[in-house]
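Write out structure tokens for nicotinamidase.
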Amino acid sequence: MKKALIIVDVQNDFCEGGALAVPEANEVIPYINLLMEENEYDQIVLTQDWHPANHKSFASNNDRKVGESIILNGIPQFMWPDHCVQGTFGAEFHKDLNRDKVTHIIQKGKNTEIDSYSGFQDNNHFMKTGLDDFLKYHEIQLVEVVGLAMDYCVKFTCTDAVANGYITCLHFNGTKAVNVKPDNGRDAIYEMIQKGVTVLG
């Protein structure tokens, strides 16, 4: 069975000191590096938030405060601080992440009108990123997922992987939650398990 490792959004803005830093985010990087060192993956894919500066998920572009919500193209949109803007240091992958074995990069969130948490598609399910096509082309059947943040981009990448027919495993030690609300991380785990994701300790 061919397997892929999907590393979600290990970018400077989500790590320590970043514009949208996930608590303890830097702790997952050595674990992810070890996974790549100790396991044989047929493909290793990085996803990268890659927003234009005028992206409508940014509070600053809507005269809103971070943490508020709006309806964007018919669905609720949390208002985030500006982050992972195309071509900026914040959008770059963290320097400590070993990329020697990476075979593919998927950029997401490039459409100003809609956010894209999942590595597979935007939040409105209008546009696919090409990740599913890439995995299917390489006959991947099992995906293991790590990265940031567990309660947003990791969760939606995992549940979309299941929906697209992949055996899907989340490495709990390879992810951290934003926890905008204290229980978000815990709730994300429950939701992923309910949808068929296997959580590895």
